[in-house]
Amino acid sequence: MPFTEASFENAIIEIFRDQLGYTYYYGPNVARDYNDPLFEDYLEPLLKRINSSMPPEAITEAIFHLKNFEAGSLVQKNEVFMDYLQNGITVNYFSDGKQCSGIVYLVDYKDIDKNVFCVANQWTYVENEEKRLDVIVFVNGLHLVVIELKSPSREETGVLEAYAQLRNYMLSIPSLFIYNAFCVISDQSMSKAGTITAGEDRYMEWKTTDGNYENTQYAAFDVLFEGMFEKNRFLDIIKNFICFSKEDGSDAKILAAYHQYFAVKKAVASTVKASGIDGDGRGGVFWHTQGSGKSLSMVFYAKQLQKALNSPTLVVITDRNDLDDQLFGQFSKCKDFLRQTPVQADSRTNLIKLLSGREANGIIFTTMQKFEEQGEPLSTRHNIVVMADEAHRSQYGFEEKVDPKTGKISIGTARIIRDALPNATYIGFTGTPISLKDRSTTEVFGNYIDIYDMTQSVEDGATRPVYYESRVINLKLDEATLHMIDKEYDAMAASADEYAIEKSKHELSRMESILGAPQTIDALCTDIITHYEDSRQYVLTGKAIIVAYSREIAMKIYRRILEMRPAWKEKVGVVMTSGNKDPEDWKEIIGNKQHKEELARKFKDNDDPMKIAIVVDMWLTGFDVPSLATMYVYKPMAGHNLMQAIARVNRVFRDKEGGLIVDYVGIASALKQAMNDYTVRDKKNYGDMDIAKTALVKFEEKLIVCRELLYGFDYTEFMTTNSDLTRAKLISRGADFLTGPSKEEKRNHFIRESLMLYQAFSLCKSMVDEKSRLEAAYLEAVRTMLTRVEGKGRLSFKDINDRINELLKQSVKSEGVINLFSDVNEEFNLFDPKFLEEIAQMKERNLAVELLKKLIAEQVSVYRRTNLVKSEKFSYMLSRIMKAYLNGMLTNEEVIDELMKMAADMTKAHYEGEKLGLSEEELAFYDALTKPAAVKDFYQNSELIAITKELTDSLRKNRTIDWQKKESARAGMRRMVKRLLKKHNYPPEGLEDAIMTVIGQCEMWTDNADMR
Q1: Mean pLDDT by 10 residues, the chain (1012 residues)
Q2: Whole-angstrom Cα distance, residue 289 to residue 239?
Q3: Dihedral (C-alpha) 83, 85, 88, 89: value to the nearest 10 degrees?
Q4: Beta carbons of 227 and 208 less than 8 angstroms apart
Q5: Does the chain have fewer CB atoms within 10 Å around its N or its C terminus?
Q6: Residues near 953 by Cβ (< 8 Å), separated by ≥ 6?
Q7: 282-288 and 363-367 as β-strands: parallel, antiparallel, unpaired?
Q8: β-strand 448-452 against 466-470: which pairing, if any?
């Protein structure tokens, strides 16, 4: 017996009821208002218990607020509700004739036993449509979590379908989701949690119950439920780890990932200890790899710390203005969650004023440059916590440095900051590991609190891997120039002390003249354009960044690209700081702060024509564009600066395989050096990112495998022909070659291997010769056709043609549009003889069988939701035909003939209702009544039609929500059907069969929400 969705649902209920101690309800047995999104039997009495000091009038007022939201979108209403849930409802009410005010709390976060936790399954709610949800989790009558499950034993369903169903619910029953904290989707093999604004790729697994990252690659389904729904942790997540990030009117609701939750808890505990009587003021270092949500972790940390340390003042320090702006921007977007507005110190004087003007609270952003050597501390308060972003930069030094020329002694920035805030507690946040040589960082901040490395982040789907491609040779740089670039790396590795910077200025000016020479810029831009157009233009949204050596070189690159591609005016932009001495003609290109913000908006918009950003320093840290997949590097970078820059391309986006770094200045050795400070497994997995040794090797391996799977079919003409018609035929014939009852295993193997081939190809395309590029394009087209024909959902000629043409666009210089079947732009339609005839005449007979089978199966699935009798009849017919085909009892020609006959029968059945004057619903009951063949001998057809209409009308009137799940209601419906049929003298020998079929049809009708 298969482990069905219902079995999986019961297993989840067991976890909640038996392990977590939740009260369990079976939805259909709960008497309630199906239009009310609140479970009010619990709500009012529990609010009174939690708020025992508040009068009944206050509770009534709070419930009124809960039920009446101002006009707005679902997300806006949910945002208001989350504020109520986390912070309580402010109420004004009259008591004993006096106007009073107070706060009514929906949850008691201090005394967990005052709350009631419930779980229910098969919970029906009616709004725009009637929907029955798999599992709902309630706290105090508020349904805070919706869990959508899919059968573990059905390959055709999974978490993707669960996610799509949740999105559908948000349209059908939006009021239910006003009160939602987060959602869960699971098919047992994969369990993920996310919010009502999250895309499917942002739903994340919860992989541990205790914060340990070991053995998390394949987390069991119960880890999420036990990890997130343990009562104390569940309430902690709701109160402290869900926030709204507001930007340009688009509010994103964010649920902390498991690594953020546990790391923040550790960080808060470490800070509390460090700030205590026995503490040394060193809170530790929080290392979470770039792209894994460090900025939001800092927001969650700041929120938690307010309570843990009784409203401390937080000073957030960065070392660059643009980083200060970016991090300040993230905190500002979450100010409602933080319940205070962050401020930026615009000067040293302003920083002093902001610190001295308060004794508690406040989140103050500043740069290290605003601290300087001085006698008096800025503040001697103990309740200050310094949050340093990127805590291991060279400026964090305690030691004194002597200028060899002037003899002047300078003090390290770490010492200056410590002297300015002598009693503060310090915690460092970083996206890259601390250098093994860097002892000053641990002196300032202490040891690591939590490490979330690249390997873990990629395993969890929080980031994507980054790959590397060298193009240095394309610029034809001489040995002297390459040696000069190496010296630049050496200078950076030596921490760029003042005397070293002075010494290198002359060398750098020489390098500028070489890297900025017209012939070098020309070679660079020619290669970037070729590489982009041939290999990267159609990867995801085509977004790319060019990192220029200097501001002058950035302008030269911009102008040369536009000379070569004048039509790219909207496609390319320059993002860099401006200076008072800039040439006049730079100003229009660089623009002011608002112009840069507009460019950022355009670059983040996947549909905007701006695709390529030329940068120098800006946008290389803290700037996130998930679809960005390509970075062209024309600037020496090393250490954490390099790792932070290349991490711009590691964000998660759709089916992004990874990010690609294209190197024009020899950063390979710097990459390897930077990796020395990473974890052992990071070095093992990502120590060599070179696509020539990773993606290209994988591509060549999978190409051989796919060729072998197509052995016996000659498709070589695809790589030599200029005829689109020939290409189209070869694609169809290739798909046909892998189709058929004896080739299922080989076909599935080909689909898996060609997908891996395509993923590797997307990274190493520029390194593949033309013949292999065309061959890879062919194999991907065949894979796409197979998956489209076999896949779920409506099938159309246009869909397959468009998808394959999009894939071939880069590799094949096509003369026109490749049409795999014909010029028809319509969906396949089982009831259109023209379509059936076209499929029947296809030369690719295996493919014709698959197409016919899919079309018929689609219509059977429609009947499975609407018409019990036809569903059983046609399911049996299809099963019988395909079984005979698979057993070799029918040839291709014979099975096509059988399927065409079946299609004709289904077409006739499709129009039967129209001829009888019956609706689709009425026809289903007509079929139920006439299932016993002899029945038609007892009645005129007009009598049967009249009985059908009366029966349908009675069923509609007597049906109640969830009636089929309640035994008493089922019995009542059964009696009603029996009385009606007896009234019309329905033949006794067919009566029980008819009643059973009618009730079955009515249940089917109800389950699919088609009966109104």
Answers
A1: 72 94 92 88 91 91 92 92 96 83 95 95 90 94 94 65 91 95 91 93 88 71 91 96 83 93 96 89 90 92 93 88 81 92 88 82 86 74 89 51 54 72 90 68 81 86 88 78 72 53 57 85 94 89 94 95 95 91 88 90 93 94 89 88 88 87 87 79 79 90 94 91 84 88 86 90 88 90 83 62 70 64 56 70 77 75 76 82 78 80 80 80 80 74 82 78 74 81 79 80 66 38
A2: 26
A3: 70
A4: yes
A5: N
A6: none
A7: unpaired
A8: unpaired
Q: pTM of whole model > 0.70?
A: yes
If we measure between CA atoms, which residue out of 76, 80, 77, 86 comes closest to residue 106? 86
Give residue 215's identity as a one-letter amino acid code.
Answer: N
What would the two tokens of residue 75 be? 């997300």
**Distance, CA of 40 to CA of 142 (rounded, Å):** 8
pLDDT at 251: 85
Burial of 612 (0-12, 13-18, 19+ CB in 10 A): buried
* Closest to 615 (Cα-Cα) out of 631, 597, 593, 591: 631
The owner of tokens 């009174």 is: 48
Angle at 318 between CA 313 and CA 323, to 5 degrees: 120
Hey, which residues does 25 pair with through a beta bridge? 120
Beta strand pairing call for 250-255 and 242-247? antiparallel
- 282-288 and 448-452 beta bridge pairing: parallel
Q: Which residue has the tokens 């507009």?
A: 598
Question: Which residue in the block uniquely carries the two structure tokens 């024909």?
Answer: 789
Neighbour count for residue 130 (Cβ, 10 Å): 20
Helices and strands counted in the chain (H then E): 39, 25
What are the tokens at 636? Answer: 């020496």
d(CA 916, CA 898): 27
Looking at the DSSP bridge assignments, the partners of residue 450 are 286
- List, in order, residues 6 or more apart from 555 with CB less than 8 Å away: 574, 586, 589
Write down the H helix ranges in 687-743. Answer: 695-709, 724-737
E strand spans, 319-445: 343-344, 363-367, 384-389, 400-402, 409-411, 425-430
CA distances (Å), origin 643, targets 259, 326, 649, 686, 826: 21, 18, 11, 12, 49
Q: How far apart are CA 419 and CA 371, in angstroms?
A: 10
Chain centre to alpha carbon of residue 781: 26
Q: How far apart are CA 454 and CA 451, in angstroms?
A: 10
Query: Is the Cβ–Cβ distance between 850 and 739 less than 8 Å?
Result: yes
**SS3 state at 690:** strand
Contact yes or no for 222/186 (Cβ under 8 A): no
Which residues, at least 6 apart from 679, have a Cβ–Cβ distance to it below 8 Å? 433, 451, 453, 454, 455
Helices (H), 217-347: 221-229, 231-240, 258-275, 294-308, 321-333, 335-338
Query: Is residue 348 within 8 Å of residue 372, measured between CB atoms?
Result: yes
